[in-house]
Amino acid sequence: MILAQSVILCGGAGTRLWPLSRAGFPKQFLSLAGDRSLFQEALLRASALTAGDIRCHETLLVTHEDHRFLALDQVHELALPRQARFLLEPSARNTAAALTLAALQALEEGGDPVLVVMPADHAVGQTDAFVDTLQRAIREADEGHWVILGITPDRPETGYGYIHFSGQPDAHGAHDVVHFMEKPDEATARRYLEEGNYAWNGGIFVLRASLWIQALGRFREDILVAVQEAWAQRSVDGVFTRPDRETYAQVPAESVDYAVLEHCPGSGISLRMIPLVAQWNDLGAWDAVCQANAGDAQGNVVRGDVLLSDTRNSLVHASHRLVSVVGVDNLVVVETADAVLVVDRSKSQQVKQVVVALQQSQREEHCLHRKVHRPWGWYDSIDEGERFKVKRIQVKPKASLSLQMHHHRAEHWIVVQGTAEVTCGEKKFLLHENQSTYIPQGEQHRLANPGTIPLEIIEVQSGGYLGEDDIVRYGDVYGRQ
How does pLDDT run along the chain (481 residues), one tens digit per residue? Predict the structure, then answer.
């Protein structure tokens, strides 16, 4: 029996999919090619790998500390039969460090499982073919090989790295890897497509945990030692495992490919490639989202409240309002509560430049939506002026905000759904629908939902400074400072 363990790498900001994808709510948690998020679809694919000769251990999810409750909520929505463990990165150090965390966790119990490593932000149109390919890769890796899935190219793509492979496939359909190539120019990519023994590198690979540790120690011992030091000082809180924050921040940031994988051909490490034909798409930009979704007779992909006239080959995504598009071709239009993007499909890779400009201007739209998710629920800033801000706040059943105080603002709370438990100074009391209260500036307070349905309130803030950093926390069940 082969023991396998899925590792889902859940990092990245998806900046080319702005304004829908942002640092606070990146693309892997969005529904871009179906009803579930990309992260949830990856979880479901991982849960389907068990076979007569393959037993799967708990899935390891490597994500950023800031996204832990967002990821946890989406895991709970699926009600998976097997538990998942979250490995929380306090800072982003790229995929080599992330995979090392997973390998160290996998080796904790004395076994040496085959790790099935996949990004959380890809779309796969043919799940059965994907699972079958990964099961064959697991069997190949059980024999001591490092197996990478090669995406069979269908066009001369210049945005991906390529795998050059050779030889006849073995019993599992695996070929020898000759070497890796960086993103080519169009003429080179066209030649690769014509020759046929080249595949896209989609960053999906399968190998024993011990083989990764061995290879990393050989090619980048500095990364291995640094992660091991942070791991030795880890803390565990339920399903969350955290390496030491300060130590992990010193880990060199490098990808699996650059740190190790590209050095493997000719090194004595057995590197194999199994072709993947499963309608794979990395959804790296809005044009890729168009390709991953079925369009109408005119080639348009729409979501939300959209009206089209004389429009072709376009993607229109409306989140909050009616969006009308007339007389255009090959366009992407994305509307959110606080931003609208209009870009030519052929220029969709350049959306990242907008995010860079927002960062340089120190505007929050590069990282946060108007609706901001928190471990206890969410808030939506629906209006504001010079000395006031109005929020719509929803608190999950049995959840609570931190005990806190504001130096510069007072708050009025009006309950519109559910029951609120309010702590204000020394007083604690319940508020029901259509009831309200006032929180004076400088007063310690807490909002909680003791009920079994979501609590929703309207909050009106007033004062000279209304920034989110005007919060002094005295106690928080989610461990925030």
Answer: 999 999 999 987 789 999 999 988 999 999 998 889 999 999 999 999 999 999 999 999 999 999 998 999 999 999 887 779 999 999 999 999 999 999 999 999 778 999 999 999 999 999 999 999 999 999 999 999 999 999 999 999 888 999 999 989 999 999 999 999 989 999 999 999 999 999 999 999 999 999 999 999 999 999 999 999 999 999 998 899 999 999 999 999 999 999 999 999 999 999 999 999 999 999 989 999 999 999 999 999 999 999 999 999 999 999 999 999 999 999 999 999 999 999 999 999 999 999 999 999 999 898 889 998 898 999 999 999 999 999 999 999 999 999 999 999 999 999 999 999 999 999 999 999 999 999 999 999 999 999 999 999 999 999 999 998 899 999 777 766 5
220 φ, ψ (degrees, to nearest 5): -145, 70
CATH architecture of 2-281: Alpha-Beta Complex (3.90)
Topology of domain 371-475, CATH:
Jelly Rolls (2.60.120)
Please give the structure tokens belonging to residue 280.
């794979």
Residue span(s) of the chain under CATH 2.60.120.10 come to: 371-475
Q: Are 260 and 101 in contact (CB under 8 A)?
A: no
Beta strand pairing call for 240-242 and 175-181: unpaired
* Residues carrying CATH 3.90.550.10, the chain: 2-281
Is 28 within 8 Å of 38 (Cβ atoms)? yes
What CA–CA distance (Å, rounded) separates 7 from 164?
A: 25
Q: Are strands 388-395 and 280-281 parallel, antiparallel or unpaired?
A: unpaired
The end-to-end CA distance of the chain, in Å, is 46
* Cα 256 from Cα 234, distance rounded (Å): 22
Give the integer Cα–Cα distance in Å for 63 and 91.
Answer: 10
Alpha-carbon span 99 to 95, nearest angstrom: 6
Are the CB atoms for 43 and 75 separated by under 8 Å?
yes
Distances (CA, A) of 396 to 77, 269, 374, 455: 14, 50, 10, 7
User: Helix %, strand %, coil % for the chain, to 5?
Assistant: 25, 35, 40
